Q: What sequence folds into this?
């Protein structure tokens, strides 16, 4: 297999290289969102999809098992997408992550389209507006948000622990948790976007697009939850 190594940091590259990296990153991000939407539409229209939803969500520990599998697959996909020796492995990582996101979104989107007509497009528009505002904030200020990493990792583990506890002990997380997770996802988008602007290598566009796609998917999930709770 042809050797593939990362180049210099985007912050040290020429204007043309930086522009090419940004174009490739956001092109792959758009492709990931489009592939996710197409795969989701296919899954939600499969005959008997409600049976899959029931298997994923029924029982005290079913959703916990699904979340555990998703976390492992996400970790593996991220490692592949940031593989420095193979571009093919990077693309396999991105595709694996898109597929995992599509599967884990099936229950909430099935509930939304069945019982809350119109809420999915509304949540998607709200997510898009927030992403554009956050992206503009980073690109206009040129601020480096990499200092958020430690706090984001800590809050991420805390959120996972709270979700697991809610499943095991059967208590609702409520609206405050939803708002907190929307804020958490917004901070992650700031962090990922600033990394795209300052810290990735110029040929890490696959891994960069995966990181940003993951944060946008998280934001969409909790905005959708918020809109559904208000209906």
A:
């Amino acid at each position: 297999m042809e050797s593939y190594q990362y180049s210099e940091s985007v912050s040290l590259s020429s204007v043309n290289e930086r522009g090419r990296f940004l174009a490739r990153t956001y092109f792959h991000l758009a492709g990931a969102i489009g592939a996710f939407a197409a795969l989701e539409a296919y899954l939600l229209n499969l005959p008997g999809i409600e049976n899959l939803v029931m298997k994923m969500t029924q029982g005290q520990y079913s959703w916990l098992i699904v979340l555990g599998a998703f976390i492992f697959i996400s970790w593996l996909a991220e490692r592949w997408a940031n593989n420095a020796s193979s571009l093919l492995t990077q693309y396999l990582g991105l595709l694996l992550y898109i597929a995992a996101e599509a599967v884990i979104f099936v229950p909430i989107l099935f509930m939304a389209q069945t019982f809350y007509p119109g809420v999915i497009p509304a949540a998607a528009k709200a997510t898009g507006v927030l992403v554009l505002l956050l992206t503009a904030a980073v690109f206009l200020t040129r601020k480096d948000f990499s200092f958020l990493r430690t706090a984001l990792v800590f809050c991420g583990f805390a959120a996972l622990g709270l979700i697991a506890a809610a499943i095991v002990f059967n208590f609702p997380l409520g609206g405050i948790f939803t708002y907190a997770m929307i804020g958490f996802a917004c901070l992650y988008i700031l962090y990922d976007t600033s990394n795209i602007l300052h810290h990735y290598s110029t040929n890490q566009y696959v891994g960069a697009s995966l990181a940003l796609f993951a944060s946008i998917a998280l934001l969409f999930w909790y905005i959708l939850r918020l809109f559904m709770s208000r209906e």
